[in-house]
Amino acid sequence: MKARSALLRLLASGSLLTVPLAAFAQEAPAQDTAPAAPADKAEAQDGQIVVTGSRILTNGSASPIPLTTVSTEMLSAAAPAGTISDALNNLPVFSGSRNQFSNPGSNATGVQGGNGAANVLNLRNLGAYRTLVLFDGHRIPPTLYNSTVDVDLIPQELINRVDVVTGGVSAVYGSDAVSGVVNYVLNRKFDGFRAHAEAGISQEGDAATRDVGAAFGFKVGERGHFEGSVQHREYDGILNRVGDRSWNNLAAMQGAGTTASPYYLATNVRLATYTFGGYITNGAQRGNRFSDSGAIVPFVAGSATGSSCCQVGGDGAYQNGSMSSPSHGTQVFGRFDYDLTDSIHFYVQGAANLKRNTSYTGWNQLTGLVFSNTNAFLSTAAKTALAGSTTFTMNEILSAAPRIEASSDTKQYYGNFGIEGDLGSFKWNATYTHGFSELETKVDNLPNSQRLAAALDAVTVGSNTVCQASIANPTTYGSCVPLNLFGSASANQAALDYVLGSATFTTHTIQDSADVSISGSLFNTWAGPVSVALSGEWRNQRFNAASTVLPTALADCTGIRYNCTQGTTILYPTTFPSSGNVSQSVREAAIEVEVPLLANVPFAKSLSLNGAARYTDYSTSGDYVTWKVGGVWAVDDGIKLRATVSRDIRAPTLYDLFQPTTTVYGNYTDTTKTPNVTAYLPSINLGNASLTAEVGKTYTAGIVLKPSFIRGLTLTVDYYNTTVSNAISVIQGFNAAIQQGCVASGGTSVYCSLIRRDGAGNATAYLIQPYNIAEVKTYGWDGELDYATQIGGRPLGLRAMINYQPHIYYRQPGIATIDQGGAGWGLNGLMPSPSVQVAGFLNFKPTDNFTIDLFEHYRNAYRRSGVASQVFKDGYEYVPGFATTNLTLTFNTGGAWKVSDSAFYVSVTNLFNAKPPLSGYYSGTTSAGASYEFSDDPTGRAFMVGFRIKG
Question: What is the pTM (predicted TM-score) of this model?
């Protein structure tokens, strides 16, 4: 222990000298020295590289749209124990991405396309579905049924770098490229062998990781080449929000968000009407509870919080979900390419990702259970105390049973083959891609409603305790095992096994696509060649779903006295629908032109315009035209100006249009009532076949500086402004703002149709449905500093990135505008969006065999909510800023073990063990222990060691 402490002090003292160097700024790299990513070919035959965001440009410095290239080595410094995609999410242009830390829950049909812990990328927090993911320039088929991509599919071992285009490029790539493009660039010419093995663990002894992988490549004859890779990764997660981190002390937002009852972040929050042994809500002993031994004792209330559901302290129960989701997965990839002739090239490649994510949402929350006052499990004293009425009702958090567990098993397959070549001065290619994804989400430890109702009604027959239903209906309930809930540890395993079941939801998403393109120079002008690219694409996407627990599955209540109503009680509290095949097809045609206007004249080393247009026809939602116009003006070698304007689209997905109806129960508050009424009610998810495409308009303008008086320095600043009109917004009937919008409209708004009520005006269900009703607008600045120099003759590289995004406006008619920029949790699962994020990289080689990599990430403080009308107590409106430092030390062990190269490395993430501040969630005021309580990586300091070889 002393040795480890000494090592930590040594590392800390060393890194403190270099931390300030990381606090510079963010965006695109030195484009002339860091090659941009390929769009159609990783390497053209003339050695040039085709640029992401264009089918014509072969030089990243000529790109009018902001483009950032990050090597895999640099990304490894950002997240030493994570994946490439984990590292990407540390870059400031990414905000609001979801992963294993995103409180995934057990709802398989929520915001994450069936896998709450999937690894998805989100540029500028405009939604993962507005970020297009490419693999070596080609669109990746969707892997989640909401048409987003779990980027863990992409083979990590053979990726050279990742290019990020931060601007709309639908005219080049089609739908979804509204906020930008992320292109994983493959190393197509890898020869030899390399492998790595690494393991890590947090300082708390959890969140362990294990990662092994290998890649190999070799020539096949004189014209062929084969390469392949395999990687297996395991992550043990952090299994408990309560207890696994001392800073997470049952925190939850409380209050009503009004001047009279402002929101604030409380700790030690407990549910006011639930206990672990049973809280009596009605009957002779109303307001008392069952002790651990089953005796009726007074309920010690905690202090009021301003939220009727909860108290601080007292005997109330709480929930306990997982803090980060365990996962394990295996990736495989193979590629064969062959030169058919000197000018025609053929390739075929395939990838697979087999992955399992697991999360725990908490214990079953049992509400309003009815019992006879002569129940066989009641003690004599309890029966006497309850004698004033024939029945009583009780609430309980069933901590004696395992927590609800959601596991997502994913099988993702991707295949692509193509042929490409030269035709005079033109280059052409044709490709075909097939993608198949099966996602099986299983939710375990759910109570079967009819079995639970039968098991709770225990009676005595002779000397035996049996289920009353087994006497009244022995055919159906002859195997019933009575369940004792009077006391936190009273339930026996046989009864729990009888009562608890599971629900499985299996979806298949399939996409086939084909595309062709030809590009080249038409003619030369005084300023250079005029180039053109023509392309066409066809896609067909299908989706189907199957469920073991349908919303129409109802309990058989024959012979059951309590807790079951024939014809209305659903079999499980969580149900999933089945769906037949639904599909859509897309046809597209596009043109792109590059026109040089000036070259080597005063004040213009070069001046060029780039334009693109695309026609898209969707079988489900109509036809659209997108376009992009941009220009680059190189004043001289040290000053370059660039600008673009584009019209982009995101077409509604099959899930937006045709998602099968899904029902999930939860505690929802009707804010239209005075006082507010919270009830355990169903929320019903629906599709909307009338949706049309969103339309985005993006402007960018930037400057690239390479001052001659500081050799090796590049500074980049870009402004961006994006507006998405006709935006598809998933409207939640249970959301307070939506409810108030209904009230303000006098009952005429579409919002009112999302709240079902009975004849007395009480809410009976809330609907969740997408509509083309919103506008999303954001703007900001990206900046980057790149500096390559030497210290004492040894190479030093510095890179700093910054994003300033002050506002992300979500506007909907009839409700107040939500500003998610610089704000925390929001509508429809929106993740926090700090207005300032900074990432800094430092790489230094003090010797030929020793390398130091330092990475610093910082975000500023953000408001807890983007809803302007919400009121917070003083000191609670903002979540404090947060910064972490990662340090990696690499020792080159040379050509030992008969290989050409090998290295041993050790990393410390969150070097100074920074504690993430609790953020809370205003819609989580009815929860204790299960609401969103953090927005940063909760792991704390963690260690990783690894070894890699190359032969």
Answer: 0.88
